[in-house]
């Protein structure tokens, strides 16, 4: 520990912390724009400057280490004046059409101006950059960029993708891919993590809101919506409901109020995915037990940011991916076939909308691999944030909505589907079913949880002994099934290198593109610090643990589809509608 003085108060803090951290742990707030909790400090904006006794210049408190005996002042006239000048210089090169900006009233730059007491912009600078790059998933509006570099840090350090960085020099600096190419022309995974940390309106999802309103208002269209597991754990935050409150019932009610014709649940598709993916895993394991050549470990395929990453970075490892489409694509395929027949309407007259915590899903639905009979399985993706915009603009009082249920037949789900929304959940859901099919017994463990794989650490692993009395699985009797779970493309790289080098000890790997899973996807409400992540995870665990049915193979609405329409899991119709493959 070391002792220093901040604003005449003696404080003791651990060695190695910064002045800003020392201040924060002693309830002294230092304003900043570029600083981000839990990730490297950047020192780009300098708004956090403080006076340090003996130092000639003001110091950026986010990157200056606290030292024994240091005397710091965070709120002197010199400091306040410097912060204002820095702020006004940033504003001089910023598009200040705030009233027509998506971030109006949620913009951190606006809030900072209020905190600093800025009342006029003294410097009338030229605008250095007005480029707008609208990719399928993400729009970059460089007229609003304040060069804080949060997006660069996240893309490089958290996601390990390193797609964007400062291009050009000085006044012409632009945060962009090399040579200022569009995001759609480089190896961007469309994970959207850069949009989550952008403090202003420079990085955001490419909006699908108008297209969805248009479909809703078109009397000839049958507009069907489905919503992802993780949305229910976070959407309430947009309406002042405390983080960690499950909002499933209010969400279903809000979607009905928005006048979608049918309100379904991607959770239903998650249970269906487990039937398909579990069966696929068992087939690969059986071949492996017979000594036949088969791609193991099998790797999950439901996160489209992850799919894009493996295509760009490990294309030769594509056979390891499960052939399953993601749950919302499976649900879309069933809606436009089985459900269209049941309603007696042409699939061309349907418009399927997925509400997702993910920006990469906007790209996923446009892929040629995600079509059947010449039609897209899903027509539009709204992020959780975009759904919030629609609810607001329709004047719906979300917080006071009564609970309601999703519509049948694609609205019922088991607890296994809820946990898809956080890292480790898909694996656990698959094991709950696969283990029981092979052994005839329930997955052992605390309340159906495979404790080592549940959590938010970088790479988690578990091994489960298979003891099967069934002749069909005799080859697997006594096998130690080894599984691993990771999230965030940076962590996935570690596991995939092992696979590439041929020394991966695992049979099955779950990868999600965003660190922590969909609860902190690129389309979720923007506050995603550690505490919020845990609360969202808690909301989904609560949903799982409070359901009567918690294993996908127990979902009667999924089993009914096999009886009425699909036949067997992994059968010919399933393969046509629910599976796909990716080629180099
Ligand atoms: Fe996800 Fe999935 S879990 S990918 O994170 O497999 O986006 O929630 O919807 O499709 O179910 C996202 C979440 C989501 C799919 C499911
Ligand atoms: Fe980087 Fe993801 Fe943003 Fe692309 S979407 S620039 S990969 S953080």
From TrEMBL:
Keywords: 4Fe-4S, Coiled coil, Iron, Iron-sulfur, Metal-binding, Repeat
GO molecular function: 4 iron, 4 sulfur cluster binding; ferredoxin hydrogenase activity; iron ion binding
PROSITE patterns attached to this UniProt entry: 2FE2S_FER_2, 4FE4S_FER_1, 4FE4S_FER_2, 4FE4S_HC3
Pfam families referenced in this protein's UniProt entry, alphabetically: Fe_hyd_lg_C, Fe_hyd_SSU, Fer2_4, Fer4_Nqo3, NADH-G_4Fe-4S_3
2Fe-2S ferredoxin-type domain mapped to chain residues: 1-78
Domain (4Fe-4S His(Cys)3-ligated-type): residue spans on this chain: 78-117
Alphabetical list of InterPro entries matching this protein: 2Fe-2S_ferredoxin-like_sf, 2Fe-2S_ferredoxin-type, 4Fe4S_Fe-S-bd, 4Fe4S_Fe_S_CS, Cytosolic_Fe-S_CAF, Fe_hydrogenase, Fe_hydrogenase_lsu_C, Fe_hydrogenase_ssu
SMART domains in UniProt: Fe_hyd_SSU (SM00902), NADH-G_4Fe-4S_3 (SM00929)
Residue ranges of every copy of the 4Fe-4S ferredoxin-type domain listed in the record: 136-166, 176-208
Source superkingdom: Bacteria
NCBIfam families, A to Z: FeFe_hydrog_A, FeFe_hydrog_A6
PANTHER family documented for this protein: NITRATE, FORMATE, IRON DEHYDROGENASE
Descriptive protein name: Ferredoxin
């Amino acid at each position: 520990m070391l002792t220093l003085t901040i604003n005449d108060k003696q404080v003791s803090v651990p060695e190695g912390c910064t002045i800003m951290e020392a201040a924060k742990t002693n309830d002294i707030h230092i304003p900043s724009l570029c600083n981000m909790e839990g990730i490297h400090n950047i020192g780009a904006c300098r708004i956090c400057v403080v006076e340090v006794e003996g130092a000639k210049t003001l110091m950026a408190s986010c990157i200056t280490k606290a030292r024994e005996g240091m005397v710091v002042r965070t709120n002197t006239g010199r400091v306040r004046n410097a912060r204002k000048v820095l702020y006004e210089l940033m504003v001089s090169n910023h598009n200040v059409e705030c009233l027509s900006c998506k971030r109006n009233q949620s913009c951190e730059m606006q809030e900072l101006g209020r905190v600093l007491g800025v009342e006029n912009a003294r410097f009338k600078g030229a605008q250095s950059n007005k480029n707008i790059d609208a990719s399928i998933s993400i729009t970059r509006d460089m007229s609003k960029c304040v060069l804080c570099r949060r997006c660069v840090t996240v893309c490089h350090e958290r996601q390990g993708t390193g797609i964007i960085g400062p291009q050009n020099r000085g006044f012409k600096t632009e945060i962009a891919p090399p040579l200022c190419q569009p995001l759609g022309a480089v190896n961007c995974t469309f994970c959207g993590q850069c949009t989550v940390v952008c403090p202003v309106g420079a990085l955001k999802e490419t909006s699908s809101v108008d297209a969805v309103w248009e479909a809703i208002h078109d009397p000839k269209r049958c507009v069907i919506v489905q919503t992802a597991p993780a949305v229910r754990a976070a959407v309430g935050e947009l309406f002042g409901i405390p983080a960690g409150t499950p909002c499933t019932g209010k969400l279903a009610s809000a979607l009905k109020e928005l006048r979608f014709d049918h309100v379904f649940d991607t959770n239903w598709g998650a249970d269906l995915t487990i039937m398909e993916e579990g069966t696929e895993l068992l087939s690969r394991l059986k071949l492996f037990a017979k000594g036949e050549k088969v791609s193991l470990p099998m790797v999950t395929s439901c996160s489209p940011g992850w799919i894009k990453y493996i295509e760009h970075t490990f294309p030769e490892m594509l056979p390891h991916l499960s052939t399953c489409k993601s749950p919302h694509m499976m649900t879309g395929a069933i809606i436009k076939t089985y459900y269209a027949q049941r309603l007696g309407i042409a699939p061309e007259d349907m418009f399927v909308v997925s509400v997702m915590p993910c920006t990469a899903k906007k790209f996923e639905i446009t892929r040629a691999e995600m079509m059947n009979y010449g039609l897209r399985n899903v027509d539009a993706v709204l992020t959780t944030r975009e759904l919030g915009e629609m609810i607001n603009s329709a004047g719906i009082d979300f917080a006071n909505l009564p609970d309601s249920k999703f519509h049948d037949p694609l609205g019922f789900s088991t607890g296994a589907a809820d946990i898809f929304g956080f890292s480790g959940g898909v694996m656990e859901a698959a094991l709950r079913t696969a283990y029981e099919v092979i052994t005839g017994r329930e997955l052992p463990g605390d309340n159906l949880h495979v404790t080592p794989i549940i959590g938010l650490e970088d790479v988690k692993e578990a091994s489960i002994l298979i003891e099967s009395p069934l002749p069909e699985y005799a080859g697997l009797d006594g096998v130690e099934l080894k599984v691993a779970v990771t999230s965030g493309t940076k962590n996935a790289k570690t596991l995939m290198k092992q696979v590439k080098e041929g020394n991966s000890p695992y049979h099955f790997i779950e990868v999600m593109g965003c660190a922590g899973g969909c609860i902190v996807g690129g389309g979720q409400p923007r506050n995603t610090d550690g505490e919020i992540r845990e609360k969202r995870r808690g909301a989904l665990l609560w949903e799982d643990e409070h359901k009567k049915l918690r294993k996908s193979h127990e979902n009667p609405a999924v089993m009914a589809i096999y009886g009425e329409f699909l036949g067997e899991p992994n059968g010919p119709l399933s393969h046509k509608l629910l599976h796909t493959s990716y080629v180099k």
